[in-house]
Amino acid sequence: MKLDQATIARLAEHLETCELEARDTPKITDEFPDMDFEDAYAIQDAIRARKIARGNRIVGLKAGLTSHAKMKQMGVTEPVFGFMADYYTVPEGGEVKVSELIHPKVEPEIAFVTKAPLKGPGCHIGAVLAATDFVLPGIEVIDSRYRDFKFDLKSVVADNTSAARYVIGGMARPAKEVDLRTVGVVLEKNGEPVAFGAGAAVLGHPAAAIAMLANMLGAKGEEIPAGTLILSGGITEAVPVAAGDAVTLRVQGMGSVSLRFC
Ligand code: 0L1
Ligand code: MG
Predict the structure, then answer these.
(1) Which residues surround ligand 2, an ion (CB under 5 A)?
(2) DSSP-assigned beta bridge partners for residue 105
(3) Half-sphere exposure of 14 (CA within 13 A, CB side)
């Protein structure tokens, strides 16, 4: 680690305040170019601890930047991992207040819910499928706290991977009954299809993103507990949204899920 505890705490407070006040900021590596990934995840953990101390619950985990489309869109080369707090949750068909966000975008995802713990190292797609209770469609609303969505991987990890809101819904299906590589998704904005893809866009198989998360946590002596909701990452590039927009995700064989922006 390159940063001391006081700096980690200060950066966590800064980034979380930007989130809560919907204010943007330059990326933190401008000030701390030598910070490493351990520092970045320590800042994310400190943000999580601040929320828990305030009475929020952590209701899920996420993988981000898991598709080539997203990596190309953001100019990065590796996946990242974050968490979902209780107030990020939007009910199916519910509203997201744009005034609470900076510059939201939506992305189509496959959500996993586990029924057994997953622990790395050595976690693989087979272990993930065996430990998955069901999968279902999810829309993630991302909202980087960095000005103009301009960041590098360490800055985005510290910023809890731009996590902001999410909705899950549609039809929950046992993972073994769906070919998650060929499953097709259509993202619609105001009734118009705006992005299309198939599950294989996520690291060849969305379960591979969950295995990567288990392996990353395993390296720290942690595991994904049974009953965890995990968003496996955007299948397409992210689509900007504004007040008045209605977004629907249709996933082949799994129904649809929607939200609105007001
Ligand atoms: O969930 C995601 O893929 C987002 C990861 C962070 C990068 C971004 O803000 O696009
Ligand atoms: Mg995402």
Answers:
(1) 64, 107, 140, 234
(2) 142, 240
(3) 16
Domain ranges of the chain: 57-261
Rounded to 5°, angle at Cα 209 from 77 and 58: 105
pLDDT digits (tens, 9 = 90+) for 39-70: 999 999 999 999 999 999 999 999 999 998 87
Q: Does the Cβ of 46 fall within 6 Å of ligand 1? A: no
Q: Tell me if residue 55 falls in helix, strand or coil.
A: coil
pTM above 0.90, yes or no: yes
CATH 3.30.70.240 fits 57-261, yes or no: no
Mutate to test the pocket of ligand 1, among 109, 144, 159, 230 (most ligand atoms within 8 A of CB): 144
| CB 231 less than 6 A from any atom of ligand 1 | no
* Atom number, ligand 1, closest to the C-alpha of residue 70: 3
Supply the DSSP symbol for 245.
Answer: -
